[in-house]
Amino acid sequence: MRRACSRGRDRSWRQAPLIDPKQAATGRALAKLPEMPLQELRLARGLSQEALAATLKVRQASISKLERRTDMYISTLRSHIRAMGSEPEIVARFPDGEVRISNFEEVEEEQ
């Protein structure tokens, strides 16, 4: 399996292994990877762009565009992650520890 590579971006800081399709189908690959792009996450969950688009009630092209973005609204990311069956979490990592940021969960409740 080939990993998609962003043009002009150095991703050497990320040493995530390639996903074996058999592991991805069972979800075991997710437990081994601390981070991955949205496209790889979708594939690891065994979802096509078309299936995810149907869940979100958008066109497949919208999913493709979202997966290539480097900047997006937190609410957009939240919807995308929830459509894959998970909950997003934002964590601030400091030298002396980590803090889970809770503000973003309240945004949806207030709207």
> What level of helicity do the residues show?
40-55%
Q: Given the structure, what is the number of helices?
A: 7
Count of extended strands: 2
> What number is the mean pLDDT?
78
Strand percentage lies at: 5-15%
Q: Give the terminus-to-terminus CA distance.
A: 41 Å
Task: Describe what this molecule looks like in 3D.
With 111 residues, the protein is mainly alpha-helical. Helix content is 48%, strand content 9%. The chain has a two-stranded antiparallel sheet. Strand 1 and strand 2 form a beta hairpin. Helix 4 packs across helix 5 (60-68). The chain is elongated and about 40 Å long. The model is unreliable at 1-8 and 10-17 (pLDDT under 50).
Quick overview:
The chain is mainly alpha-helical.
Topology, element by element:
Elements: H1 21-26, H2 28-32, H3 38-44, H4 49-56, H5 60-68, H6 74-83, E1 90-94, E2 97-101, H7 103-110
Antiparallel strand pairs: 1-2
Helix pairs in contact: 4-5
